[in-house]
Structure formats: C-alpha cells, structure tokens
Amino acid sequence: MEGTKYEHLGQSHQEQGLAPPPLQLAVPASAVLIELPRIEQIKVKAVDLREAIEARRSVREYASTPLTLEELAYLLWCTQGVQRVYEGFATMRTVPSAGARHALETYLLINGVEGLDPGLYRYVAMGHRLLAVEIGEDLARKVASAALGQQFIAQSAVTFLWVADIYRMTWLYGERGYRYIHLDAGHVCQNLYLASAAIECGVCAMAAFDDNGLNRLLELDGDERFVVYLAAVGKNGAVRG
C-alpha cells in the first residue's frame, strides 16, 4: 500500500505517450467462438433492488439444476457487458472501472450449463461470445483443489474466475493500478450477486486460493496476468451461510 501512494509514483506510460494496450486478450485466429444470446433477447424475472440487496447471502450449496445458456449470458453481460467502445483506449461496461480501463478478463469453470461441455472457457466481452480454453470434467476437481479444497466449486453450475490483465490498468495509473484492479473485482462480483437473484441462483465469492497453482491451471504467467477473485454460482435449493 505504501508503494502505491502518489508520492512514490513516477510518470505512467500514458503520461509518457506510450500507446495503450489492447482492450481485451487476443483471440486466436483458429479459435471457434460460441455465440451467446443477445441481452435484448433474454427475459428474466423482475427483482426489486432493495429486496435483492436485503436478501443477499453467500450460498455454498446448490441444486443440481443446470443454468441455461441464456442465464449464463445474462450473468456475463451484467458483470462485464460492453456498452460502448472508445477505439484503442477504453470501453464503457455494465460495471464501473478506474479510468474505464476494465482490466479484468472473465474465465469460467463450466460444470452445468445447457449446451456447453464441462471445462474452462473465457468470455470475449467485445463480441459477447465464449472461447473454449480446455474441455474436461476433471477440471472442476483441479480448480477446487487450487482453491484450497473448497469442494462446492465442483458442485456449482459455473464458477467465475476473474483475471487481471494488469498492464491495461497500470498503463494509465502506474503501480497504483494494483489497488484499482481489486476494487474493480469487487464491483464486478457485487453485480454477480445481485444479477443472480433474477435467475434464482446463489453465489459465493472466494479470495482463498493458491495463486501459483490456479495461475498455472489457467496458463497465466502470474505477473502480467493473474487470478484475483472467484465466485461460484448455482441454482438455489440448499443451505445459506
């Protein structure tokens, strides 16, 4: 925290005139992308905001009912949906972000979503599509193990894994960007909690995980890109805590 105070900061790369980094991670040219239902086509039940806030709890047990692809698309749009692109500099999304940098990438451990094979995916926010990273049912066990044995991850319909692409933030803010990336993750996760109420899902956020192990599992270098936050999601139907 001390090292990120303004008194210790030099000029950011933006102030030095360096070009900004890409607004999202590159998509391989050979990748097969999965189109998601558009938000304007998705219908969810109306939920009173006050009621959703008052009822918010962390839920660690889930019914076995899978999410629909529409429900997953709704949660992705509510947490990272792109509303406007300022080409080469910033995006406006459904959550706040320092300097509109939006330096988080959403990875997904899919266990129970209709039409999707179990495995790891990445949300391509600019385009509202999914990219399969690795397919395999054993990935749920591996992610749960890397999350210090929190086995309810393996029982979730989907677990969100938010990854920092840190230079996208530090390009503008220098070392202080390390503060902002964690604030941004909090904004995103709170949207997930509130949005899940409209599709009768429970959520449990997690910050307890083996950083190196989870980064290796997602093939992240742990320096320029690293996991900062997790949240499991599943249909309501069990104990809250």
Description of the molecule:
With 241 residues, this protein is an alpha+beta fold. It has seven helices and nine strands, in the order E-H-H-E-E-E-E-E-H-H-E-H-H-E-H-E. The protein has helices at residues 49-55, 69-80, 139-146, 152-155, 167-173, 177-196, 211-217; strands at 33-35, 82-86, 90-93, 104-110, 119-124, 129-135, 158-165, 201-206, 225-235. Helix 2 runs antiparallel to helix 6. The radius of gyration is 18 Å and the shape is globular. The protein starts with 32 loop residues before the first strand and ends in a 6-residue tail after the last strand.
What are the SSEs and their pairings?
Elements: E1 33-35, H1 49-55, H2 69-80, E2 82-86, E3 90-93, E4 104-110, E5 119-124, E6 129-135, H3 139-146, H4 152-155, E7 158-165, H5 167-173, H6 177-196, E8 201-206, H7 211-217, E9 225-235
Antiparallel strand pairs: 1-6, 2-3, 4-5, 4-7, 5-6, 7-9, 8-9
Helix pairs in contact: 2-6, 5-6
List keywords for this structure.
241 residues, alpha+beta, 7-stranded antiparallel beta sheet, two-stranded antiparallel sheet, 7 helices, 9 strands
Decide which structural class fits the backbone: alpha+beta
Given the C-alpha coordinates, what overall shape results?
globular
Beta fraction = 15-25%
The major pleated sheet works out as: 7 strands, antiparallel
Oligomer: single chain
For the biggest β-sheet, the strand order reads 1-6-5-4-7-9-8
H/E topology pattern: EHHEEEEEHHEHHEHE
* Total strands: 9
Q: What is the radius of gyration computed over CA atoms, rounded to a whole number of angstroms?
A: 18 Å
Number of helices: 7
**Can you give the helix content as a percent range?**
25-40%
Distance between the terminal alpha carbons, to the nearest Å? Answer: 31 Å
Q: pLDDT average, as an integer?
A: 95
* Unreliable parts: none
